[in-house]
Amino acid sequence: MSDLVISRLEGHVLHVELNRPQAKNALTTEMYESLVKIFGDARLNDEVRVLLFKGGRGCFCAGNDIQDFVTQPVLSEGTAVLAFLHELANFDKPLIAAVAGPAPGVGTTFLLHCDLVYATASSIFSMPFVNLGVSPEAASTYLLPRFLGHVRAAELLLLGERITPEKALELGLINAIVDEADYWEYATAQAEKIAAKPVEAVRATKRLLRAHNVSLHQVIDAEARQFVQLRDSEEAQAIFQGFLNKK
Q1: Mapping DSSP to helix (H, G, I), strand (E, B) and coil, where does residue 175 land?
Q2: Which of 33, 60, 63, 73 is 20 to 30 A from 20 via CA?
Q3: How many other C-beta atoms lie within 10 A of the C-beta of residue 123?
């Protein structure tokens, strides 16, 4: 498995970290392949009661790697990206995220699948898909209206503007803004509290909270088909090349 994603079990909490700091933890196909295995194994391992996704300290995840957008069949059928989104929708144990720094694109839509999200004042959220000439993913077109209502969801997805931690807290996208110095430790303590509770009661509650997961799979696939169509357009390709040329 790639060393770009690190996982370790501490007690009954599986800690998952991204390890590509030079690229602000932008996700590559190789990293998605690792995440598919980690999440799949965790779902089937009774020793894992909670998964704590920490991104990287001070830098959560800068979304998908732009180079992959150009050279890899991102979100096409059979890809690791699409497999991971389905694995995420299937994950039936508590999922907690600890966020600091950049979290654009999938860094934000991933959080819609989490049960608890703790962020710092440095966190930067956004879903700039339309700005890149593509459509949203990770079932965000279903989850956001469900969580926020249509008009607020449309504002976030159609404008694609940055969302401050304060705004994210107001909207209910995160649970709390915590201190930068110990946000990993705070999220870990919350994960350990849940891991110590009756296992079957916790998992039953999670299943009931996420009883819409059958619909999620249909939305994920529909979004992926639209994403691929737009990604391959001249407009989107020109935008991606513009980003690459700036490097």
Answers
A1: coil
A2: 73
A3: 24
